Amino acid sequence: MNATALGALVGLAGGVGVCLVLWRVAARRITLDARIAPYLRERPRTSRLLAERPVHTPFPTLERLLAPMVDDAGRVLERLGSSSVSIRRRLQLLGGTTTHDQFRTEQLMWAAVGLAAGLLGALTIGVLRGAPFVPLLLGVLLCAVGGAVARDQALSRQVRRRQQRMAMELPDVAELLALAVSAGEGPVGALERIARTTNGELALDVRRTLAEARSGVPLAVALERMAARTDEPSVARFAEGVAVALERGTPLAEVLRAQAQDARETARRELMETGGKKELGMMVPVVFLVLPVTVLFAIFPGLAVLRVGL
């Protein structure tokens, strides 16, 4: 390594160090609210260091030591990517038990894997081909950012697939619920029968709604919460329609059959739209690949005859 490259590396390291110091100083700046808050609220009887915190890994001591750094990295990821509100909403739509902090930890792990892969690739390219340092460094940083973005996109895909599965399961669930109500069962009994006899994402959401109803929440309110936990319009209309029918005394079986019919019509319309988009996509290879080959096969004999005549 020559003197110029060594000087550039030392300057880069010094600049990164100064930026990190300034960033930490700005992050730890004490505001006026933080100064007067201890005098305006009741102080805890014990130290906050002794407070019980949930543990999500098999290494609780290491997790507590790394928790502040993980929080700081999470704020950096929030500035670069999706906000905490968006992540919490998507985790709610996913219906799992993953918390926001757990997702940020997973995102950091994906970024670390991308950073390791980028370092391995940069070292391989640098040793074999002697590439410049700055492009290799940019490639490593892009790999790390790509790992964090990939985890965010994976969450969006999981949410989208779950919402699609719920929309596909809705007509059958609504029909079964209508049959149970028509047979004389009450709304809670019909929902319990659906939860026992069916499997899928919508059945899991129904079980969660029944758990809230058993805990003392009115069934109509639990159904409204179920509608708020989804972005699929048909599922939200189903839950809200059942809640309104329970509150106003509307015949529930007719409402459920209408909901099932609407869900099937929506599914058929979406299928037709998807088929139209696929049809347009299939035109691309036909127009740009098959049609030129067909034209060449049709014109080539004539061109060969003309060339022989000349």
TrEMBL record:
InterPro entries, alphabetized: T2SS_GspF_dom
Record flagged with keyword Secreted: no
A GO cellular-component term linked to this record: plasma membrane
Subcellular compartments: Cell membrane
Type II secretion system protein GspF domain span: 175-298
Membrane topology, record value: Multi-pass membrane protein
UniProtKB keywords: Cell membrane, Membrane, Transmembrane, Transmembrane helix
Signal sequence range: none
One Pfam family linked to the record: T2SSF
TM annotation in the entry: 6-26, 108-127, 133-150, 280-306
Source organism, top-level taxon: Bacteria
Record-given protein name: Tight adherence protein C
Organism taxonomic ancestry: Bacteria, Bacillati, Actinomycetota, Actinomycetes, Micrococcales
